[in-house]
Amino acid sequence: KAADKENIHNRMKVFMDLYREGCMEDLSLTCDKAESIELLLDKFVARLEGGVLEAGDSAARDSLCRTTSVHLRTVNPNVLRDELLAVLNKFPGFKRLSLSEPSPETRWKRRGWATFARDSKIKEICFNLSNVRMKDSDLNPVLNKDLSRRIRGVSPLSNDK
């Protein structure tokens, strides 16, 4: 839990630094501002990874922010984050793991996203993860496909439940 708390504080610090630097001035979350939104998100990721990203630095942007990932469709609720990290850290290029909250609709299973460096052999990693069982449960990994557009507009009604 201490590591989680530290991650949250680090994210807040990065956000506040970007805010104080004026990176969010005049930023609106509209489709016509997709490039500005992507740059802000890439700056955020770069700083979380310990780098700095400036506008126009496409080489740094590609190396720091362009990643590939595997979606873990079913993570048993009994599997600890540290246990899953121990498995994922064995693969070259592993960067980070994101886990959803347990869902009552799926018998408290979680979903996960394992992020790897862009040059990782992601198909091989996904295949190897498909052979991993953790606490009598498969992870059911699938490759996340690249998005043609990272920022996509939605109708205001599409979020209505």
Q: Strands, helices and their partners?
A:
Layout: H1 2-20, H2 34-48, H3 58-65, E1 67-75, H4 81-88, E2 94-99, E3 110-117, H5 122-130, E4 141-143
Antiparallel strand pairs: 1-3, 1-4, 2-3
Brief account:
The chain has 161 residues and is α+β, with helices and mostly antiparallel strands. The chain has 5 helices and 4 strands, in the order αααβαββαβ. The chain has helices spanning 2-20, 34-48, 58-65, 81-88, 122-130; strands spanning 67-75, 94-99, 110-117, 141-143.
Describe this structure as you would to a colleague.
- The structure is a single chain.
- By secondary structure, this protein is of the alpha+beta class.
- The protein contains five helices and four strands.
- The protein has a four-stranded antiparallel beta sheet with strand order 2-3-1-4.
- It is globular.
- 16% of the residues are buried.
- The model has no long low-confidence stretch (mean pLDDT 84).
List the strand order in the largest sheet.
2-3-1-4
Low-confidence stretches: none
Estimated helix fraction? 25-40%
What would you call the structural class?
alpha+beta
First-residue to last-residue Cα separation: 33 Å
**H-E string:** HHHEHEEHE
Number of strands: 4
Radius of gyration: 18 Å
> Which band does the percent of strand residues land in?
15-25%
Average per-residue pLDDT, rounded, comes to 84
If helices are DSSP runs of H or I spanning 4 or more residues, what is the number of helices? 5
**Assembly form of the protein:** single chain
Biggest β-sheet description: 4 strands, antiparallel
Which outline best applies? globular
